[in-house]
Amino acid sequence: MAEEGVYRYLPTRMADRLRGMGVAVRKQMDGSMQGLHRSPAFGSSVEFAEYRGYVPGDPIRRIDWAVYARTDRYVIRQFQEEVNIRAYVLLDISRSMSYRQSGPMTKLEYASFLAAGMMYLMVQQGDSTSLVTFDADIRDMHDLTGSFTGLKPMLRALEGVTAEREGDIEAALHAAAERIPGKAMVVLISDLLQDPRQALRGVQHLVHDGKDVTVFHVLDPGELRLPIDGLYEVEALETREKMVVDIGEIREAYLRQLREYLDEVRTGCSNVGADYILVNTNTEVHDTLHKRSATR
């Protein structure tokens, strides 16, 4: 059992590096402000939402001293008008995400670090977030939270996810679009191993519904370079079909098709209005999240 307060996919060192990094959106959200560009309102006309823990940099005047007197904990009252961005992190847990060839971890493990970091950033800046896992359909969808306390069950849930079922990105994204209400931020973390035209239809559905969409395309370095040689029995991760191939004979054709595939996905995301970030599992998670921060 994991030690209380210690999270596999959000270790202290990683959280420390993410502190101060911000995430913004381009599209108008359902709230009145846009994440980092808010001007918080206070008073009886603002509906109280929940508490969150005090973090260095919060104005001391916002500490709820009555709660401190009862619990000896410093907490900040958070109001509805401050929870402006609702960020849904869609994590692909289909079978192909279990792949690891030359990277330091599986694609799912890397994607879980990425999901944890993104959710931490949202809560850190006073917005709300939800973890949504999927393969061919939505498997789990956590309630939105804007507090570090509410984030803990999602971090624990990440530690239990496994990549076992066949995926269908398009179907899952259509289902997500139906279940995510209003204008929100959506972060898709997936290896996108599906016909690009199908996956892009799912992305387009989310964008068409007013969602601000970022796609993190996670691949193993071996998938990007095909560094091995010789005869290998290969297995399709989604369908389990097997065949023997000579890697040297197919490398050139594979890399050409890979370039065409990546170009189609990148261009398709741009055409429908989604941000696209290609990342391999050798990349520091902090650096990948910084790319998302730098896109706005």
- Spell out the helices and strands N to C: HEHEEHEEHHEHEHEEHEH
> Based on CA inertia axes, which overall geometry fits?
globular
- Helix fraction bin: 25-40%
CATH topology of the largest domain: Rossmann fold
Structural class: alpha/beta
Number of extended strands: 10
Largest sheet: 6 strands, mixed
> What oligomeric arrangement do these chains adopt?
single chain
CATH H-tier superfamily of the largest domain: von Willebrand factor, type A domain
Low confidence ranges: 32-46
In whole angstroms, the N-to-C terminal distance is 39 Å
User: What amount of the residues lies in strands?
Assistant: 15-25%
Radius of gyration: 20 Å
Describe the overall structure.
Mean pLDDT is 84; it is low at 32-46. The protein has 9 helices and 10 strands. The protein folds into 2 domains: 39-82, no CATH class; 86-294, von Willebrand factor, type A domain (Rossmann fold), CATH 3.40.50. The protein has a 6-stranded mixed sheet, with helices on both faces. With 296 residues, it is an alpha/beta fold.
